[in-house]
Amino acid sequence: MDFLLFLSWACIVFTVGMFSTGLSDLRKMRESKSAENIQFLPFLTTCLNNLGWLFYGILKKDHTIVFVNTIGALLQILYIVVYFYYTKMKRQVTLQTLAAGATLITGWLYFTTFLTEGEARLNQLGLTCSVVTVSMYLSPLFDLVEIIRSRNVQCLSFPLTVATFFTSTSWVLYGLQLNDYYIMVPNTPGIFTSLIRFFLFWKFAPITQSSPTYKALQM
Protein backbone atom coordinates (compact mmCIF):
# COMPACT_ATOMS: atom_id res chain seq x y z
CA MET A 1 0.00 0.00 0.00
CA ASP A 2 1.24 3.46 -0.90
CA PHE A 3 2.33 5.42 2.19
CA LEU A 4 0.19 8.44 1.25
CA LEU A 5 -2.84 6.17 0.86
CA PHE A 6 -2.06 4.63 4.25
CA LEU A 7 -1.89 8.09 5.82
CA SER A 8 -5.13 9.04 4.10
CA TRP A 9 -6.95 6.11 5.69
CA ALA A 10 -5.29 6.82 9.05
CA CYS A 11 -6.56 10.42 8.90
CA ILE A 12 -10.05 9.23 8.05
CA VAL A 13 -10.25 6.55 10.76
CA PHE A 14 -8.70 8.59 13.58
CA THR A 15 -10.49 11.85 12.77
CA VAL A 16 -13.94 10.31 12.38
CA GLY A 17 -13.29 8.41 15.62
CA MET A 18 -12.40 11.68 17.34
CA PHE A 19 -15.52 13.42 16.06
CA SER A 20 -17.58 10.44 17.21
CA THR A 21 -16.62 11.01 20.84
CA GLY A 22 -19.48 13.51 20.93
CA LEU A 23 -21.86 10.54 20.74
CA SER A 24 -21.28 10.00 24.46
CA ASP A 25 -22.72 13.47 25.14
CA LEU A 26 -25.60 12.73 22.80
CA ARG A 27 -26.36 9.56 24.75
CA LYS A 28 -26.23 11.45 28.05
CA MET A 29 -28.68 14.05 26.74
CA ARG A 30 -31.10 11.38 25.56
CA GLU A 31 -30.91 9.44 28.81
CA SER A 32 -31.27 12.46 31.09
CA LYS A 33 -33.59 14.41 28.76
CA SER A 34 -31.40 17.39 29.57
CA ALA A 35 -28.41 19.27 28.13
CA GLU A 36 -27.07 20.36 31.52
CA ASN A 37 -23.31 19.98 32.03
CA ILE A 38 -22.86 19.65 28.26
CA GLN A 39 -20.95 22.38 26.41
CA PHE A 40 -22.61 23.75 23.28
CA LEU A 41 -19.92 26.01 21.79
CA PRO A 42 -17.49 23.15 21.00
CA PHE A 43 -20.13 21.60 18.74
CA LEU A 44 -20.75 24.92 16.99
CA THR A 45 -17.12 25.95 16.53
CA THR A 46 -16.11 22.47 15.38
CA CYS A 47 -18.92 22.53 12.82
CA LEU A 48 -17.70 25.87 11.45
CA ASN A 49 -14.15 24.52 11.36
CA ASN A 50 -15.30 21.41 9.49
CA LEU A 51 -17.14 23.49 6.91
CA GLY A 52 -14.09 25.70 6.38
CA TRP A 53 -11.82 22.71 5.83
CA LEU A 54 -14.48 21.12 3.60
CA PHE A 55 -14.34 24.17 1.31
CA TYR A 56 -10.52 24.00 1.39
CA GLY A 57 -10.62 20.31 0.44
CA ILE A 58 -13.00 21.03 -2.45
CA LEU A 59 -10.76 23.80 -3.80
CA LYS A 60 -7.67 21.63 -3.37
CA LYS A 61 -9.52 18.58 -4.78
CA ASP A 62 -8.39 16.48 -1.82
CA HIS A 63 -10.88 13.67 -1.28
CA THR A 64 -9.52 12.81 2.18
CA ILE A 65 -10.15 16.32 3.52
CA VAL A 66 -13.56 16.48 1.85
CA PHE A 67 -14.71 13.11 3.20
CA VAL A 68 -13.48 13.63 6.76
CA ASN A 69 -14.96 17.09 7.13
CA THR A 70 -18.26 16.12 5.52
CA ILE A 71 -18.67 13.41 8.17
CA GLY A 72 -17.48 15.81 10.87
CA ALA A 73 -19.90 18.56 9.86
CA LEU A 74 -22.85 16.15 9.72
CA LEU A 75 -22.02 14.80 13.19
CA GLN A 76 -21.71 18.31 14.64
CA ILE A 77 -25.06 19.30 13.10
CA LEU A 78 -26.59 16.22 14.71
CA TYR A 79 -25.13 17.19 18.09
CA ILE A 80 -26.37 20.77 17.68
CA VAL A 81 -29.92 19.66 16.83
CA VAL A 82 -30.09 17.25 19.77
CA TYR A 83 -28.64 19.87 22.12
CA PHE A 84 -31.21 22.43 20.97
CA TYR A 85 -33.99 19.91 21.56
CA TYR A 86 -32.99 19.22 25.15
CA THR A 87 -31.57 22.54 26.33
CA LYS A 88 -33.56 25.02 28.41
CA MET A 89 -31.52 27.93 27.04
CA LYS A 90 -32.98 27.86 23.55
CA ARG A 91 -32.79 31.64 23.07
CA GLN A 92 -29.06 31.75 23.86
CA VAL A 93 -28.35 28.71 21.67
CA THR A 94 -30.38 30.24 18.83
CA LEU A 95 -28.47 33.53 19.02
CA GLN A 96 -25.11 31.74 19.05
CA THR A 97 -26.13 29.60 16.09
CA LEU A 98 -27.36 32.63 14.13
CA ALA A 99 -24.09 34.43 14.84
CA ALA A 100 -22.15 31.40 13.61
CA GLY A 101 -24.36 31.24 10.52
CA ALA A 102 -23.74 34.92 9.80
CA THR A 103 -20.00 34.37 10.18
CA LEU A 104 -20.16 31.42 7.81
CA ILE A 105 -22.13 33.34 5.18
CA THR A 106 -19.79 36.34 5.44
CA GLY A 107 -16.76 34.10 5.00
CA TRP A 108 -18.32 32.29 2.07
CA LEU A 109 -19.17 35.59 0.33
CA TYR A 110 -15.65 36.87 0.92
CA PHE A 111 -13.90 33.80 -0.47
CA THR A 112 -16.25 33.38 -3.44
CA THR A 113 -16.81 37.03 -4.41
CA PHE A 114 -13.86 39.20 -3.41
CA LEU A 115 -10.98 36.78 -3.94
CA THR A 116 -9.77 35.78 -7.36
CA GLU A 117 -9.80 32.17 -8.47
CA GLY A 118 -6.73 30.02 -7.91
CA GLU A 119 -3.85 30.02 -5.44
CA ALA A 120 -4.68 33.31 -3.74
CA ARG A 121 -8.07 32.08 -2.56
CA LEU A 122 -6.74 28.65 -1.60
CA ASN A 123 -3.85 30.13 0.39
CA GLN A 124 -5.97 32.65 2.27
CA LEU A 125 -8.62 30.03 3.05
CA GLY A 126 -5.92 27.62 4.22
CA LEU A 127 -4.44 30.30 6.46
CA THR A 128 -7.86 31.14 7.93
CA CYS A 129 -8.67 27.49 8.64
CA SER A 130 -5.21 26.97 10.13
CA VAL A 131 -5.61 29.88 12.56
CA VAL A 132 -9.01 28.59 13.70
CA THR A 133 -7.68 25.04 14.15
CA VAL A 134 -4.66 26.21 16.14
CA SER A 135 -6.87 28.31 18.42
CA MET A 136 -9.13 25.30 19.03
CA TYR A 137 -6.17 23.09 19.90
CA LEU A 138 -4.70 25.70 22.25
CA SER A 139 -7.96 26.74 23.95
CA PRO A 140 -7.84 23.86 26.49
CA LEU A 141 -4.48 25.12 27.80
CA PHE A 142 -6.34 27.28 30.33
CA ASP A 143 -7.98 24.10 31.65
CA LEU A 144 -4.58 22.42 31.87
CA VAL A 145 -3.28 25.24 34.08
CA GLU A 146 -6.21 24.70 36.44
CA ILE A 147 -5.59 20.94 36.42
CA ILE A 148 -1.99 21.48 37.46
CA ARG A 149 -3.14 23.74 40.27
CA SER A 150 -5.82 21.34 41.50
CA ARG A 151 -3.87 18.15 40.69
CA ASN A 152 -7.14 16.68 39.42
CA VAL A 153 -7.56 15.30 35.87
CA GLN A 154 -11.20 14.23 36.11
CA CYS A 155 -12.22 16.94 33.63
CA LEU A 156 -10.01 15.33 30.96
CA SER A 157 -10.95 12.42 28.73
CA PHE A 158 -8.17 9.89 28.22
CA PRO A 159 -9.80 8.28 25.11
CA LEU A 160 -10.23 11.74 23.57
CA THR A 161 -6.59 12.56 24.34
CA VAL A 162 -5.45 9.37 22.61
CA ALA A 163 -7.70 10.09 19.62
CA THR A 164 -6.43 13.67 19.38
CA PHE A 165 -2.80 12.52 19.49
CA PHE A 166 -3.17 9.97 16.69
CA THR A 167 -5.38 12.29 14.63
CA SER A 168 -2.94 15.20 14.87
CA THR A 169 0.04 12.96 14.10
CA SER A 170 -1.71 11.49 11.05
CA TRP A 171 -2.56 14.91 9.64
CA VAL A 172 0.95 16.27 10.25
CA LEU A 173 2.46 13.33 8.35
CA TYR A 174 -0.18 13.67 5.63
CA GLY A 175 0.62 17.37 5.27
CA LEU A 176 4.33 16.59 5.06
CA GLN A 177 3.71 14.10 2.27
CA LEU A 178 1.70 16.69 0.34
CA ASN A 179 4.09 19.52 1.26
CA ASP A 180 1.03 21.40 2.52
CA TYR A 181 1.89 23.56 5.52
CA TYR A 182 -1.76 24.56 5.98
CA ILE A 183 -2.44 20.94 6.94
CA MET A 184 0.79 20.23 8.77
CA VAL A 185 1.29 23.34 10.93
CA PRO A 186 -2.17 23.69 12.57
CA ASN A 187 -2.19 20.04 13.65
CA THR A 188 1.24 20.19 15.28
CA PRO A 189 -0.10 21.86 18.49
CA GLY A 190 -2.50 18.92 18.86
CA ILE A 191 0.47 16.60 19.30
CA PHE A 192 2.07 18.78 21.97
CA THR A 193 -1.14 19.41 23.92
CA SER A 194 -1.86 15.67 23.85
CA LEU A 195 1.62 14.91 25.20
CA ILE A 196 1.03 17.43 27.99
CA ARG A 197 -2.26 15.68 28.81
CA PHE A 198 -0.57 12.27 28.84
CA PHE A 199 1.92 13.62 31.35
CA LEU A 200 -0.88 15.03 33.51
CA PHE A 201 -2.68 11.68 33.46
CA TRP A 202 0.53 9.93 34.48
CA LYS A 203 1.17 12.50 37.22
CA PHE A 204 -2.30 13.09 38.68
CA ALA A 205 -4.75 10.43 37.48
CA PRO A 206 -6.44 8.31 40.20
CA ILE A 207 -6.74 4.57 39.81
CA THR A 208 -10.31 4.84 38.52
CA GLN A 209 -11.63 7.70 36.44
CA SER A 210 -14.92 8.34 34.67
CA SER A 211 -14.94 9.78 31.15
CA PRO A 212 -15.92 13.46 31.03
CA THR A 213 -17.84 15.25 28.36
CA TYR A 214 -16.83 16.01 24.81
CA LYS A 215 -14.76 19.07 24.03
CA ALA A 216 -13.88 20.78 20.83
CA LEU A 217 -11.86 19.02 18.20
CA GLN A 218 -10.25 20.00 15.07
CA MET A 219 -9.81 19.47 11.45
Automatic annotation (TrEMBL):
It is found in: Cell membrane; Golgi apparatus membrane. The chain crosses the membrane at residues 6-26, 38-59, 65-86, 93-111, 123-144, 156-175, 181-202. Keywords: Cell membrane, Golgi apparatus, Membrane, Repeat, Sugar transport, Transmembrane, Transmembrane helix, Transport. GO terms for molecular function: sugar transmembrane transporter activity. The keyword Protein transport does not apply. Mediates sugar transport across membranes. Belongs to the SWEET sugar transporter family. This is Sugar transporter SWEET1. It comes from Oryzias sinensis (Chinese medaka).
